[in-house]
Amino acid sequence: MRIRNKHRKSSAFHCNAGSRWSYLAIWSLTGFILIVYFYAHIHQNDKQDILVHLNHLVDTREMEKVEREEFHFSPPKDRRSPRAVKRKGPRKPSTIIREFLDASSQVHSFFFPSKKTAISLIKEGNDSMHFYPGRLWLDTDGNPIQAHGGGLLYDDNTETYYWYGENKDGRTYHAHQKSAARVDIIGVNCYSSKDLWTWTNEGIVLPGEETNVSHDLHKFNVLERPKVIYNGKTDKYVMWMHIDDVNYTKASVGVAVSDSARGPFTYLYSMRPHSCDSRDMTIFKDDNGEAYIIYSSNDNSELHVGPLTDDYLNVAGFMRRILVGRHREAPTLFKHQGIYYMITSGCSGWAPNKALAHAAESIMGPWETMGSPCVGGNRVLRSTTFFAQGTFVLPLRGLPGTFIFMADRWNPSELKDSRYVWLPLTIGGLADEPLDYNFGFPHWPKVSIYWHRRWRLPEGWRNEER
Ligand code: GAL
Questions:
Q1: What is the CA radius of gyration of the chain?
Q2: Average pLDDT for consecutive 10-residue bins of the chain (466 residues)?
Q3: Residue 331 in contact with ligand 1 by CB distance below 6 A
Q4: Which of 176, 240, 250, 280 is the pocket-test mutation for ligand 1 (most atoms within 8 Å of CB)?
Q5: Helix, strand, coil shares of the chain as percentages rounded to 5?
Q6: Going by DSSP bridges, is the β-strand pair 402-409/339-346 parallel, antiparallel, or unpaired?
Q7: Which of 287, 355, 398, 408 could form a disulfide with 385 if both were Cys (CB 3.0 to 4.6 A apart)?
Q8: Residue 304: its pLDDT value, please?
C-alpha cells in the first residue's frame, strides 16, 4: 500500500513532473517565440525608422549644406570737401549695416538686386521652383509679391497654402523728422499656392480705411505682422495683427474674421492684450486646437504669452511674462516632438540684427535661450540673420523636424521693395551655444537656419504619410 502509494505518489509525481516540464517547455517555447517576434518587430520598426531617417537625410541633405559666402566691399568715397575732412577728420568707416541701408551704396544693390534677377514663373529650366533669398519674387501676374511681415496658413479645406502679409506698395516717407520710415496702410494681401513657390494674388482681404480718421485701419495708422489661423469649432478664419498709431503709442492688437481663407475679413476691434502694450506679435495654433498670442511688451523689453479664447477672438484671462529684460521682438513660434521653439530678433527697427532661438517644454514657459540659429554664409550674414528679420516658421508636413524660416529683408528707403528671405530650418543635434545655462534645464536640440543663395524644397516635403 505504502509501496503502491509510494508508487502512485511517485508515479503521480512523475506524471505531474512530466506535465510540469511540458508546461514549462511550452511556456518557454511561447516565451521564446514571443521574444523572437518582439525582437523582429522592434527591429522591423527600427529598420523602418532608420529607413525614414535615411530618406529624410537624403531629402534634407541639400537643405542642410553649409554654404560659405564671401563678399568684399570697398569703403565708400568720402564726398566731403577737403576742408571738412580736415576739420572733422576722416569719416568713420561705415558699418556694413549702414551701407546696406543706404540706398545709394553699391552694397545696397547687392542685397536688393534688380528686377532682371527676379524669381518669376516666366523663367524656365534651372530657376524653376528655386528660392533665391533677397531677389524680387513675382506672383503669377508678374507683379512683385506684396506680403511683408506675413505668415502662412495651410488650409485643409482647400488643400492650399495662403500667404497673408502687409501690402506696402505705396510711398515711403517719414511722418516726423526722427520717426521710422513708413508706408500708409493699404491693407492685408493674400496669395494662394499649392507648391509654396507659385503664388496667385487673391487681392486685399482686409483693406485700409481711406476717410474715417478714427478707424484703427485709417491709412495714417500702422497695421503690421498679420497672421491667420483657422478655428475648427466656429469654422472661421481669424486674423490677428499689430495695430498702432503713427508714433507707435497705441501698441495694440487687432482682430478680424472671415468665413473663407480668401477673405474678405471683417475687422472687429483692437485691444491692449491683458491691458499691456503690444507691438510685434504672432499667434500660434497648437496640435490640440488651443491658440496663443505672443507679443513684445513693456516697451519691447519682454515678451508675453497667453491663450486665446475658444473662438480665437479674444485673449483668455491670463498670460506669462517671458524673456524678461531681453528686449526681443518679431517672435515666430513652432513645435517639434512636444517641444516649443521660438525665433526672435533684437529691437533695431528696420535694421537687421542677430536672431536668437529659444525653447520650452510648455508654451507658457519657462523659455530658455539657445543662441543664434544661423548657419553658413559668413559672420556678417549670420550676425544680421542674413540681413533679415523673422516673421513666420512653416512646418514641412512630409519632413518632420524640417521647416521654412520666413523673414523680411526690410528696405527702409523704399519699403515696398523689401525682399523675402526664405531659408530651411531644421531641428536636431545638441545646441552648441546655450545662453541660459541652468542645471535644471534639459539640453534642447539645436535649431539651425541654413544660408543658401539658391535652394529648393526636397522631394517628399508635402508627403503626409511619412
Ligand atoms: C521693427 C518691427 C517691424 C516694424 C519696424 C518699424 O522692429 O519688427 O514690424 O514695426 O520695427 O520700425
A1: 29
A2: 39 46 68 59 55 64 90 68 76 79 90 91 76 96 97 96 98 94 98 97 98 98 98 98 98 98 98 98 98 98 98 96 98 97 97 96 95 95 97 96 98 98 93 62 86 94 68
A3: no
A4: 280
A5: 20, 35, 45
A6: unpaired
A7: 355
A8: 98
Q: How far does the centroid of ligand 1 lie from the alpha carbon of residue 280, in Å? A: 7
Ligand 1 centroid to residue 82 C-alpha, Å: 38
Query: 76-85 — which CB contacts under 8 Å span 24+ positions?
Result: 76/102, 76/105
Q: For residue 350, how far is its CA from the centre of ligand 1 (angstroms)?
A: 6
pLDDT at 47: 58
Question: Is the CB–ligand 1 distance for residue 447 below 6 Å?
Answer: no
Q: Is 141 exposed, middle or buried (0-12, 13-18, 19+ CB in 10 A)?
A: exposed
The residue to which cell 541633405 is assigned: 61
Q: Is 180 close to ligand 1, i.e. is its CB under 6 Å away?
A: yes
Instruction: Tell me, in angstroms, the distance from the centre of ligand 1 to residue 119's CA.
Output: 26
pLDDT at residue 3 in the model = 38
For residue 221, the CA-to-ligand 1 centroid distance in Å is 14
Decide if 432 contacts 184 (C-beta within 8 A). no
Residue 13: predicted pLDDT: 34
Separation of alpha carbons 295 and 276, rounded Å: 10
329 lines ligand 1 (CB under 6 A): yes
> What's the burial of 188, exposed, middle or buried (CB within 10 Å: 0-12/13-18/19+)?
buried
DSSP letter at 68? Answer: B
Question: Quick one: which atom of ligand 1 is closest to the CA of 149?
Answer: 9
Ligand 1 centroid, distance to 137 Cα (angstroms)? 22
Q: Which three cell numbers stand for residue 406?
A: 520666413
Q: Write down the pLDDT at residue 41.
A: 54
The residue contributing the CA closest to ligand 1 atom 1 is 349
**Based on the number of CB atoms within 10 Å of its own CB, is 323 exposed (0-12), middle (13-18) or buried (19 or more)?**
buried
Residue length of the chain: 466
Q: Is the CB of 224 under 6 A from ligand 1?
A: yes
CA of 22 to the centre of ligand 1 (A): 79
d(CA 101, CA 35) in angstroms, rounded, equals 66
pLDDT for residue 114 = 92
